[in-house]
Write a structure and sequence with these properties.
This protein is of the alpha/beta class. It is built from 10 helices and 11 strands. The structure holds nicotinamide-adenine-dinucleotide (NAD).
Length: about 290
């Protein structure tokens, strides 16, 4: 068996084309979706991610503004900016690029973002709402994985899903989202004993550990769907995921590559969340106008 490749670039293009229409429809109502990105310090990877995000916004017609602070910035300066952005009606999404420098309490900063502008979905309300069954903003990376499965017509309901990695950003929300789609989900992590005994049961295996070659072919069931979220830079400069792509490709039914898999979907879902937020803003504004008009 040779797996079909789940082409994240292609799906991202299709999703963005669909959502571009919704940006156009908003423009006709006098609303341009707006995203504010806050970046503190000079982490090179963060700089690259922010560049990708602002370019993607420009391409689809979202207004984006980058707020950059030097490494030594006190937390209060960022909290003050977030407070202003929360009140700014031209901004529908606020994103704080992680990681923040050590003098920051990341949790406190993320909690300062208004729930209705938390397009990354990291605010505790959004996390809790995800657990309770629904959320305003699904976190972008797992949302992107779900979208890849749906666009590839891969059934989720009733499937055995194994998620490798239990971070707040990827693993945990991924598990919640697929459980909500009626999958039977198992989460594994660094302390899991004999990882293979779990991964071998997966109809859908989502790997987000940040360890090159963590998942080898014998750990994967024949015909499984394998989604590789990992991004690792090897000493020779190559970018790879967490799975042995070449060997698993001969065993799985579907596999997502790195690069060109989950990465482009993460940015795409940020656009989707921002556009949806602007749509909610427009709907509330129109409802308020109707009330005022009696
Ligand atoms: P993290 O370091 O916060 O969490 C990693 C998780 O993997 C932890 O729960 C840890 O227990 C688990 N883990 C580590 N080694 C393991 C092992 N040997 N066996 C089983 N579990 C193990 O990382 P993260 O932020 O969740 O990111 C994970 C990977 O996904 C990284 O490579 C990151 O770069 C990548 N990532 C990609 C995107 C994207 O858009 N494609 C987005 C976010 C993260």
């Amino acid at each position: 068996m040779t797996a079909k490749i789940i082409d994240g670039n292609d799906i991202a293009r299709r999703v963005r084309a669909e959502w571009k229409h919704r940006v156009d429809a908003l423009r006709d109502q006098g609303v341009r979706p707006g995203l504010a990105v806050i970046i503190v310090g000079d982490n090179p990877a963060s700089q690259v991610y922010v560049r990708h995000k602002t370019k993607a916004c420009a391409d689809i017609g979202i207004h984006s503004e980058k707020h950059e602070f030097p490494q030594g910035t006190p937390e209060q300066a960022v909290l003050d900016l977030i407070a202003r952005l929360n009140e700014n009606t031209a901004i529908h999404g606020i994103l704080v690029q992680l990681p923040l420098p050590p003098q920051f309490d990341s949790r406190r900063v993320l909690e300062a973002i208004a729930v209705e502008k938390d397009v990354d979905g990291f605010n505790l309300y959004n996390v809790g709402a995800l657990v309770a069954g629904d959320t305003v903003f699904p976190p972008c990376t797992p949302f992107g994985v779900q979208c890849m499965l749906e666009y590839s017509n891969i059934p989720i309901s009733g499937q055995n899903v194994v998620v490798v990695g239990a971070s707040n950003i990827v693993g945990k929300p991924m598990a919640m989202m697929l459980m909500k789609k009626d999958a039977t989900v198992c989460i594994t992590h660094i302390k899991t004993r004999d990882l293979a005994q779990f991964t071998i049961l997966a109809d859908i295996l989502v790997v987000a550990a940040g360890k090159p070659m963590l998942i080898t072919a014998p750990m994967v069931k024949t015909g499984a769907v394998v989604i590789d979220v990992g991004i690792n830079r090897l000493p020779d400069g190559r970018l790879v995921g967490d799975v042995d792509f070449d060997a698993i490709r001969e065993k799985a039914s579907y596999i997502s590559p790195v690069p060109g898999g989950v990465g482009p979907m993460t940015v795409t879902m940020l656009l989707v969340n921002t556009i949806q937020s602007a749509e909610r803003f427009a709907a509330n504004r129109d409802a308020a106008k109707r009330v005022m008009a009696g």
